[in-house]
Amino acid sequence: MNIFRLAGDMTHLLSILVLLLKIYATKSCSGVSRKTQELYAIVFLARYLDLFTDFISVYNTFMKIVFIASSLAIVWCIRVHPMVKRSYDKDLDTFRHYLLVAASFLLALFLHEKFTFLEIFWAFSIYLEAVAILPQLVLLQRSGNVDNLTGQYVFFLGAYRGLYILNWIYRYLTEPRFTRWIACVSGVVQTALYADFFYYYFISWKNNSKLKLPA
Amino acid sequence: LEKILYHDEL
């Protein structure tokens, strides 16, 4: 494991912690897209089906369990916790996320490494992760103002994707047989979706002002 | 081995 991969995983973990902290501290999920969180829960459940068949390292297994558990916990908070549930604004969170699920699954049926149950669900999770942030980005754009913790959550998620690209470049240069088109191409698409957000994030950071996205 | 290597990322 190289430093970029480790840093990527850590920022991913950090983003989840920031989100949990926001929900726990404010007992509110305002500005958070429940649909994006549900998509991430599906992503992790579909990708880590190999928890039961393949063992890579204690680190991998541990992180997989953390990602599954934390994503389910976040969805549970937004759907079930009485106080958090009340702060959820479903009128802002209108993205038709089931279309993303359907399109990703269809793509996985055609584009995969092997036609096996695990491989199709793995490819599906890669495609779905690439677009899972869309409901969140649309929600932020619609609401205009972004509170600090939600902004940092999206920032760390984007940083995680950027670091994974550096990780792939590093691996491509150092590992003779490193080719994984599905993950890399989807990863680049996924990172590109953050470009707009990052642009406004850095402007607000430079001007030391509150993050605002144009309508 | 190849399959394990392939899915070594999270």
UniProtKB/TrEMBL annotation, chain A:
Topology class, membrane: Multi-pass membrane protein
Principal localisation: endoplasmic reticulum
Superkingdom in the source lineage: Eukaryota
GO cellular component, one term: endoplasmic reticulum membrane
GO biological process: protein retention in ER lumen; protein transport; vesicle-mediated transport
Record's signal peptide: 1-25
Record key words, sorted: Endoplasmic reticulum, ER-Golgi transport, Membrane, Protein transport, Receptor, Signal, Transmembrane, Transmembrane helix, Transport
GO molecular function, one term: ER retention sequence binding
Cell compartments where the protein resides: Endoplasmic reticulum membrane
Membrane spanning stretches: 58-78, 98-115, 121-141, 153-173, 179-202
InterPro entries the record matches: ER_ret_rcpt
Family of this protein: Belongs to the ERD2 family.
Name of the molecule in the record: ER lumen protein-retaining receptor
Source organism (scientific name): Medicago truncatula (Barrel medic)
